[in-house]
Design goal:
Elements (H helix, E strand, L loop, with lengths): L1 E4 L7 H14 L3 E5 L6 H14 L4 E5 L2 H6 L4 E4 L6 H4 L7 E6 L14 E4 L19 H7 L4 E4 L7 H6 L4 E3 L2 H4 L4 H13 L6
Parallel strand pairs: 1-2, 2-3, 3-4, 4-5, 5-6, 6-7, 7-8
């Protein structure tokens, strides 16, 4: 999974679209779209639908914005742990894949809804969340024992430590700066993809 903030990670919309297209063509099969700029709804809707029309086999996950996920051609939505409540989750269209964030001290939620996958972190030091203390790859096994859902590791993941988190039990990885901020992101995607393909994991 590649995590992208179109309005923070790139100078303009065109650069964001070009990068996302490159990532999909290079082998990334899940794109999570974050949004620190809570406006431009129609523009975001058009971008998502454009990507899905060009790359119908790609998987686009929307971060937090239920209306955007429901009304667009997106494939899923990712919900923060603090927002995982019945009255919120029940608004999600049944066709959508649902992801949820979790942390080392989290306990399984007791409600009528279950996620399709979990994102766990922060595993290593992360540029996206520099103030958060990383938990380390060894904690992944604890999360795997708590939950029956696939777990994607996030936080400081790159081509050098992907194998480590997979060996620790992660089913896949979610990466942001480890790809976006690299000099040759296409090469990095290929290297990580090759590592994950050995285990047939989520990416």
């Amino acid at each position: 999974m590649l995590v992208v903030d179109m309005y923070k990670d790139f100078d303009n919309r065109n650069k964001a679209e070009i990068f996302i297209s490159m990532a999909i063509e290079s082998g990334v099969n899940i794109i999570q779209l974050r949004d620190t700029q809570k406006n431009k709804y129609k523009e975001k809707l058009n971008i998502i639908n454009k990507i899905k029309n060009i790359y119908p086999k790609s998987n686009i996950i929307i971060n937090s914005d239920i209306n955007l996920a429901n009304e667009s051609l997106a494939d899923g939505i990712h919900i923060k742990e603090s927002e995982w409540k019945n009255d919120i989750v029940k608004q999600i269209d049944q066709r959508l894949v649902i992801g949820k964030s979790t942390h080392i001290n989290s306990m399984p939620s007791i409600n009528e809804y279950s996620p399709d996958y979990l994102i766990f972190g922060t595993v290593f030091s992360s540029k996206s969340h520099p103030r958060i203390r990383p938990v380390g790859a060894e904690k992944i096994s604890i999360i795997k024992k708590k939950y029956i859902y696939p777990v994607l590791a996030i936080g400081g993941i790159n081509e050098k430590n992907t194998s480590k988190v997979i060996k620790a039990g992660a089913d896949g990885v979610a990466i942001k700066s480890g790809i976006i901020e690299r000099e040759n992101p296409k090469k990095i995607i290929t290297l990580i993809k090759n590592i994950l393909m050995k285990k047939n994991d989520i990416y």
